[in-house]
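G., the chain you wanted modeled:
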Amino acid sequence: MDLGLRGKWALVCGASKGLGLGCAQALVREGVNVLIVARGDAQLQAAATDLRANHAGATGAVVETCAQDITTEAGRAAVFALRGAFDIVVTNAGGPPPGDFRDWDRAAWIKAVDANMLTPIALIQATVDGMAERGFGRIVNITSSAVKSPIDILGLSNGARSGLTGFVAGVSRSSLAAKGVTINNLLPGAFDTDRLRGTLQAAAQRTGQALETVMDNRRKTIPVQRFGNPAEFGATCAFLCSQHAAYITGQNVLIDGGAYPGVY
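Predicted structure as tokens:
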């Protein structure tokens, strides 16, 4: 299936590894030029080398990098100094640490909201009007399955990402929708990433169990009996960015191997 994206420009955040890199790989394979952003320059350059060598060859897609913290105003300014207009924006920032809500002070909450709610909103503000003028735009926010099924030790993430979800529900149905701009959220469940390992490591320490035991127990709660992989997540992201997804906006697309037990 031709996704109709060749020659478009995408900003992909948190793209040096994990789900962000999976999205960048899928887009580059479709001929999308990408500016990938992450804080660590060495890992970001390694990701760019992989994209150019293993994914961009057939399409000639351009891969640019910007080693910045996208959750800061200075980081966003550096990104937009390199390129001002994007057809696709994939927002993604590492989730705040797990823990007991009793231990989180105001600073912890502000940091979580800045990274996982206000940063995506700032990126949307900076790009959607240009998208609307050109008649095409795709915003995909990587959030979490915890938006639908909260996890007790991830309260900072539950709260901040739920705020973003509410905002997107409104803005995605504004006048932007009639101008070819769609805004959707991708809600990953348990994917094989550093983030998952960190969360499970914390659970292992809390319960005194071995990490592999905790991981195996978690797998068994998923109907498909495995963790997801970034490549299949990226493929879903690329589809939401495609010409074929023009009638999908304001949605929370859950990718969790069937773990969420609800009907709606």
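The CA atoms of residues 23 and 234 lie 4 Å apart.

Shout if anything looks off.
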